[in-house]
Amino acid sequence: MKGATLNVLRVQWERALLEGDFDRVDRIVFARTRIEALAPTRQKTERLPQAEPRMIVEPPTDDGDEYEGK
Predict the structure, then answer these.
(1) Where does the record place the region Disordered (predicted)?
(2) What pTM, to 2 d.p., does this model score?
């Protein structure tokens, strides 16, 4: 819900800027700041799992020998 509210406020903020209603711009910025400060943030356990690291494989050389690490 927090993300949807912030998106609505962003649209309202853009519209207020275009109309030159700077009092409304200030109120929207204040509301957005309060929402971001008071809304619970995502916990570390809720994060999406990270992709497994991939192993880098060197291609064989032109003479057909396999790559030897130095």
Answers:
(1) 41-70
(2) 0.50
Which residues form the domain of 6? 2-40
User: Would 22 be classed as within a structural domain?
Assistant: yes
d(CA 46, CA 36): 18
Would you write out the chain's pLDDT as a tens digit for each of its 70 residues?
A: 566 788 888 899 999 999 999 999 999 999 888 888 887 665 544 555 566 666 666 666 666 555 555 5
Q: DSSP of 11-63, one letter per residue?
A: HHHHHHHHHT-HHHHHHHHHHHHHHHHHSPPPPGGGSPPPPPPPPP-PPPPTT
